[in-house]
Structure to design on (227 residues):
C-alpha cells in the first residue's frame, strides 16, 4: 500500500504500470486519475491546501479500509497540493484485486471517501478573482452507500 | 493548546495557527470563547454547521471533550479528489 501527498507532478502511466507490475496475484487493476478541469470563466489555477500530518493519516486509514474490505492485493493513493494549472493531474488511485468487481468498488470507495474525509481544500483562481470550492452535498451523500 | 485554521476559516481569522490557553471543556466551549474575543472570530464561527473540526487530527463533533488535547483544527467541509 502506498499513500503520497506531494506538490510534485506524477506520471500517471508510469505509476500505473509500476503498480500493476507489483501485483502478480491480481487479475484486475483499476486506476483513476483526476485532472484540473478548465471552467467556463477561464481557470488560471487550482490551489490545493491541506493539513499536513492529518492528510497522510486520513489517506492511510481510508486505503487500509479498502484493502481489508475488498481483499485487495495492493492499493495506491497519490494526491497533490499547491498551485496546479488546467490539464495537470491532481490525484490518482489504483486498486488491485483478484476480480474486477472488487477492484472497481474499492476504487470508487477510495474516491468517495477522499473527496470528503481527507483534509484538502480547493480554491479556483480565475481572471475575476479566487473562490474556495464549496463541498457538494452529493459528495457527502455518496458515503452512505458504503 | 494549538489551534489551527484552514482555507476560508484561516483567511477570515487572519492566521494559520495560534497557541491558546483555555479551560474549555469541549470544542463548543472553545468556539464560544473564540467568538467572544473579536469580530473576526465571531464572523468565522458565525455558522458552525458550515465548519468541521478535528481534535488531535481526528474528525470529531463539536461536543467532543478537550481534556488532554494538544491540537484543535477548524476548517470548512473538505473538497479533495
Amino acid at each position: 500500500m502506498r499513500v503520497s501527498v506531494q506538490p510534485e507532478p506524477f506520471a500517471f502511466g508510469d505509476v500505473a504500470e509500476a503498480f500493476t507490475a507489483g501485483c502478480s496475484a491480481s487479475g484486475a487493476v483499476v486506476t483513476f486519475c483526476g485532472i484540473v478541469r478548465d471552467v467556463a470563466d477561464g481557470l488560471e489555477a487550482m490551489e490545493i491546501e491541506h493539513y499536513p500530518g492529518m492528510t497522510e493519516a486520513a489517506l492511510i486509514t481510508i486505503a487500509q479500509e479498502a484493502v481489508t474490505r475488498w481483499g485487495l492485493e495492493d492499493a495506491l493513493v497519490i494526491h497533490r497540493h499547491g498551485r496546479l494549472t488546467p490539464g495537470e493531474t491532481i490525484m490518482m488511485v489504483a486498486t488491485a484485486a483478484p476480480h474486477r468487481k472488487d477492484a472497481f468498488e474499492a476504487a470508487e470507495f477510495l474516491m468517495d471517501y477522499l473527496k470528503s474525509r481527507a483534509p484538502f481544500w480547493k480554491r479556483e483562481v480565475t481572471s475575476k478573482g479566487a473562490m474556495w470550492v464549496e463541498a457538494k452535498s452529493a459528495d457527502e451523500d455518496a458515503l452512505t452507500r458504503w | 493548546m494549538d489551534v489551527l485554521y484552514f482555507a476560508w476559516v484561516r483567511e477570515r481569522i487572519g492566521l494559520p495557527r495560534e497557541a491558546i490557553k483555555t479551560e474549555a471543556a469541549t470544542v463548543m466551549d472553545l468556539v464560544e470563547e473564540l467568538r467572544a474575543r473579536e469580530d473576526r472570530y465571531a464572523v468565522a464561527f458565525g455558522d458552525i454547521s458550515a465548519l468541521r473540526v478535528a481534535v488531535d487530527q481526528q474528525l470529531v463533533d463539536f461536543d467532543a471533550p478537550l481534556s488532554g488535547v494538544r491540537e484543535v483544527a477548524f476548517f470548512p467541509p473538505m473538497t479533495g479528489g
